[in-house]
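Appendix B. Raw example, untouched.
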Amino acid sequence: MTSDPSVLRAMARLRKALEKRMAMDDRAEELARRETKPHADRLADFDMRALARRLRPMLEFDGRGWRTLADEMGSTSSDLSRVMAAQQLAYPKVRAICDWAGLDADAFYLPPLHAPKPRKRPRPAARPARVFHMKTTETVRFENQLPEGGR
C-alpha cells in the first residue's frame, strides 16, 4: 500500500463521503419502513366517478343543456361539468345534484381509510312516560292525566 499523503487524504475523503451516503440511505429506508399516519392515507371523499356514471344517462336522456339543468338543480353549469369530470365538489352541491337525480348522496360517500366504525346512535323516539313513586304505596303516572271531573 502506498504511503503518499495526497492519496491517503483522498481515500479518507472518499471513505467519509461514502459513509455519509450510506447513512442517508439507511435513514431513507428507516423512514420508508415507518408506519404512515392515518391522515396520510385517504381522507373522507365522494366517489365522483360513480356519481358521474349514474348521472350521465339521466342528463343525456333529458336532452336540455347543462346550464338549464344546473339552474333547475340549484348549482352552476361549471359544477355540473366538474361532476362529470369526476372532480371535487362541495357537499351542498353534490347533495343538490343528487336530490335532482333522485339519488342518495350518502351512497357515494367514501369514509377515511382508517376511520373507526360509526357510532350507533339511538334514533330519537317518544320518551317513555315517567313514573314517579310517591311516599304512598301507589305508583302514579303523570302522563295524560286529566283533572278530576274534566275531560
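End of appendix B.
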